[in-house]
Design a protein that fits this description.
About 50% of the residues lie in helices and about 5% in strands. It is mainly α.
């Protein structure tokens, strides 16, 4: 297994990380914060139907990715509780699901 040791910083909050930098340049927390600001913040951005559909697809992909990260983890429980390593993934999955609800016209 190759160890990835690239250092990068989040373009929004400046937090330092080691690993493969994301294409967005943002850490997971800042991506969620940015999406929440779009939907709940003062800087509301209207999305076209195509953009909303694209975002729904992105959120589905992100949810699948997070679920796959915890798949096969012996420390995670089948009832949905995640180990400390995968708890952050569970939190993000819930945020993604709430955003999909907003896109579908309901409030979480």
């Amino acid at each position: 297994m190759d160890v990835i040791s690239t250092r990068w910083s989040c373009a929004r909050c400046g937090a330092a990380y080691i690993g493969t930098p994301p294409d967005t340049g943002l850490c997971d927390d800042c991506i969620v914060v940015s999406l929440r600001q779009i939907f709940y913040g003062a800087a509301t951005t209207a999305l076209t139907a195509d953009q909303a559909g694209c975002l729904r697809g992105m959120l589905a992909d992100a949810t699948s990715y997070r679920i796959a990260r915890a798949a096969g983890c012996a420390a995670c429980h089948p009832d949905g509780h995640r180990c400390a390593r995968h708890e952050h993934d569970r939190v993000l999955i819930e945020a993604y699901r709430q955003l999909v609800m907003v896109l579908n016209g309901s409030r979480p």
